């Protein structure tokens, strides 16, 4: 069972590793759903922890539709992230019609070279999640899809997540369930969906506040459930 935890600072990353996270999603702008962190933060986190780190590449929070200038920014960011070494990426892009922007996806995957990829919750705004799943399954670099099943929270989207998980069986692509999961609902959610990867942010922070630091006790409670 893989536990991915959002980190927005070096201290977050160190606490996450110490308290049982298997992987870190490194972002800034947590209240905006996550934006690309600074290169200095990326480099420091990579040096501070041994567990895998996936870095958000998202230039703005206006939408998941990106202009040619946005694409240039994302490509430059990927180059900088690659230079830090031993990192992976979190990306997601849509066309105005709600389909995966495969043209931009291919460009970013090429720039990423061998780095593994999580397709983030842009997936929850696709016009057809099963169609999007089929598209993303064509790209071996994309190992995870972060989703709440198209609903505000993963527990609300549990039925859809269960079906997405079923369709990923036997594939290298995995469903990474996130949003609204906590120690209070995790057991029942896992039984309902059979997912093997979960993503937590606010639920493992002090008072559940996304702007506060990770709370070791909350994180350890989640880890104990997964174990």
Automatic annotation (TrEMBL):
It is found in: Cytoplasm. Keywords: Cytoplasm. InterPro entries: CutC-like, CutC-like_dom_sf. It comes from the Bacteria. Pfam families: CutC. Belongs to the CutC family. This is PF03932 family protein CutC. It comes from Paenibacillus auburnensis.
